[in-house]
């Protein structure tokens, strides 16, 4: 039995990867706030993450959960809008709000993983 390959640990790892990619995307948007023609980008991973969560049917009358599609994160451009006269559509206030939200999400995931490791540590030490 591998302690670190449980579904919970895998999902937490995937969520951390997605959050890190979102942080990178937001940083890119903020770095290009004055670049003419730059279009803001967003990371799409939460929907993919939620789709990848395992769910088990306990009754045949329940809807089936599909887990056959591999999860992936991707960055998509937010075209069609313009915030500045130079064609750029980066909204600094929105990006800063998303940055703070993503930071809280990341910290929550890290606390959850630390809790898992502390549980394993307690078991290894015999409950002491």
From TrEMBL:
Chief location of this protein within or outside the cell: other
Keywords: Bacterial flagellum, Cell projection, Cilium, Flagellum
Compartments it resides in: Bacterial flagellum basal body
Entry's Gene Ontology cellular component terms: bacterial-type flagellum basal body, rod
Record-linked InterPro entries: Flag_bb_rod_N, Flagellar_basal_body_rod_CS, FlgB
Domain (Flagellar basal body rod protein N-terminal): residue spans on this chain: 16-39
Secreted as UniProt keyword: no
GO BP term, pick one: bacterial-type flagellum-dependent swarming motility
Transmembrane segments: none
Subunit structure: The basal body constitutes a major portion of the flagellar organelle and consists of a number of rings mounted on a central rod.
PANTHER family: FLAGELLAR BASAL BODY ROD PROTEIN FLGB (PTHR30435:SF12), FLAGELLAR PROTEIN (PTHR30435)
Record-stated family: Belongs to the flagella basal body rod proteins family.
Function: Structural component of flagellum, the bacterial motility apparatus. Part of the rod structure of flagellar basal body.
Name of the protein in its database record: Flagellar basal body rod protein FlgB
Source organism per UniProt: Fictibacillus arsenicus
Lineage, opening ranks: Bacteria, Bacillati, Bacillota, Bacilli, Bacillales
